[in-house]
Specification:
- The structure is a single chain.
- A hairpin with a 2-residue loop joins strand 8 and strand 9.
- The protein has 17 helices and 26 strands.
- By secondary structure, the chain is of the alpha+beta class.
- The radius of gyration is 32 Å and the shape is elongated.
- Helix 1 crosses helix 4, helix 8 runs parallel beside helix 9 and helix 14 runs antiparallel to helix 15.
- The longest helix has 19 residues.
Amino acid sequence: MPVRQLPETIVNRIAAGEVVERPASVVKELVENAIDAGASRIDIFSDGGGRRKIVIADDGAGMTQADLALAVDRHATSKLDDEDLLQIRTLGFRGEALPSIGAVARLSITTRHAREPHAWALSVEGGDKSDVAPAALSHGTRVEVADLFFATPARLKFLKTDRTEAEAIREVVRRLAMARPDIAFTLAGEERAPVTWAAALPGAPGRLTRLGDILGADFRANAIEVRSEREGVAVEGFAASPALTRANALGQYLFVNGRPVRDKLILGAVRAAYSDYLPRDRHPVVALFVTLDSREVDANVHPAKTEVRFRNAGLVRALIVHALKDGLAREGRRTAANSASSVISTFRPGAAPPANWDWRSSPSYPVGGGAGFAAPSFAERTQATFDVGAPSADIRPHEIAPDLLDRPLGAARTQIHETYIVSQTRDGLIVVDQHAAHERIVYERLKASLDANGVQRQILLIPDIVEMDEATVERLVGRADELAQFGLVVESFGPGAVAVRETPSLLGKTDAASLLRDLAEHMAEWDEALPLERRLMHVAATMACHGSVRAGRVLKPEEMNALLREMESTPNSGQCNHGRPTYVELTLTDIEKLFGRR
């Protein structure tokens, strides 16, 4: 078959296959055009998941008659002053969106520029362009797309249900609305009540207002402001505390120079920053905005412009990690436990008695059938359910220094089940998981020792010999240098054993066999691409778990108070290394709510 030049209509449909993937792609391109036109208000309407109709109306600058006639031609754009693709300051720049949409749908554009005496309209159906004609419109631009993919019916088979496509449109608008809180957005159609996000004030408060409107009150309540800047690159935004997590990474919203993107580099940086706070199967909720010179980022690497490439990717990653870690450290004791509602919601009030309930059948009915209330005792068969045993440790009120009640974590009152410390503050009580709390303390000490002058070691008088299978021994010996940085010195002791010669002083007396087996299990999951720093932190976390106060150990009053004071001075003490809260807090108001006093 000889080589031939394809017709313009076929070329446009091929291009549309890249730009117009689904109805949400159409909405994205048209809303970006409205933003580039300087709109302060954008209204979006869709029907049939965007298949039947999409309408975008804005109050932007509009187009002149000549611009409108040229706008639907391929690679015609007003957004590039010259031919330098590294000076892109707008969301769109290729001039492909309108001709691509017009090639596969029925496109109608009505627009009015301030210099024009009236509006102008133009339509494109399956690539056939009409003449520009006078129209009625007060200002801005109105774009209507009907019968999407009518010119390429095969594409309709790849679309999902109307509900799914409508949700994709909603997600696109949400992302663009987060990027521009200064613009008012209204999303309507799909037999739903219209949703309006009013324009917010400039600065961080306005941005948080918009993020709270879109991501919900939970995000607003748990949001931590983050900011970092260096060498002309700024990272700012809001990150949720570890109290608010998701089962996937869909709650991570990333923007580069106002453009919503999905960048693996940034997602990896977010994951690294939260690694000390969250379990492996949970993901943080963040909205980060990266601002840098347009010459330092290439937005022309993806047909839909959803990916970017940084000239100095290492700097961007370091700034994101620093900004998030700094913000999280600043709010180190802020956990899910600090949310009174989350604690109260775990309590379930007892069911109301049935209408035919007979009080004489109550377990508390006086023995003797109610002849008198002077009976020697009451039936308390069901009260055994509430028997938690005697406290493991007890501190009488007169033994507490008054100033301890003013401390953030209060004064220790008792220990229950040899696992939980109950402390009292001026306006409530706190329950501390002693193992989780001490685990975080040991972990932060190990990290601080590593950063300072190395972890102090203790030489074992008699080395511990731990027997393992040969593959596990090879894995441990192969990582011996990394383990040595944390004071754990191991060496091969025959084909199926390891000799432990030194252990970290911070851990005290530890079960070497159990520690090595846990380390070996974690190492089996590592891959060589995992940075050394992350591998070291995994080692430190495992060691901290083994070197901390175990559940089941009885603590003296002074030990409990010492643990509380150490928590107050330790960064990130609100969560253990696995992301679980180290304490829960109930204010007196919360307790009164539980008992119906408020």
